[in-house]
Known about the structure:
Number of helices of chain B: 0
Shape of chain B: globular
Helix content of chain A: under 10%
Number of helices of chain A: 0
Number of strands of chain B: 12
Largest interface: A-B, 27 and 23 residues
Oligomer: heterodimer
Amino acid sequence: GGIITQTPKFLIGQEGQKLTLKCQQNFNHDTMYWYRQDSGKGLRLIYYSITENDLQKGDLSEGYDASREKKSSFSLTVTSAQKNEMAVFLCASSIVGQGYEQYFGPGTRLTVL
Amino acid sequence: GDSVTQTEGPVTVSESESLIINCTYSATSIAYPNLFWYVRYPGEGLQLLLKVITAGQKGSSRGFEATYNKETTSFHLQKASVQESDSAVYYCALGESNYNVLYFGSGTKLTVEP
Lengths: 113, 114
């Protein structure tokens, strides 16, 4: 089996600050994803990457940048943290192709002061 | 765009009772989306419960079942007799494209009372 690791587990930042979240997977999956989950709501896709150095925007990409410098890692940057961005950010990975399961990390909880 | 609507929570049922969590979807970018139920048990990460990728088929896992109904655009989750250990948050999701982009419902928190 494999595992997805997200760091940090908790991230506290100031409004306007640039913040980076990291994700590592050892499944050897090609595709990786970043989702945001607000309290009591479903997950919404921010970015995904189908291979190393590839980036695809999701519905929620505005205000975020992403980086996939190697197959096993996928980083997300909040370019300017806003108070209404307090949420949990979930990273996932999957085999390429329709219908495959996504494996999720434990999440990073972001709080903006 | 694509979207998923599911039963608003929280839902509370007694052990051994039957359960249905409704899920309907709207798929505009793909004719035959893949459908999933994910679950988050207390203290654990989000994980797949079951999936169906062919319209008309049924998926099952841990006593739960869901049938992919293209006519009614539904994928309701059912269990005949729930247990306390089924207490969790359940998410219906629609997958489209070869890269499996998922659209999630808002989640349904289920509490099963002894």
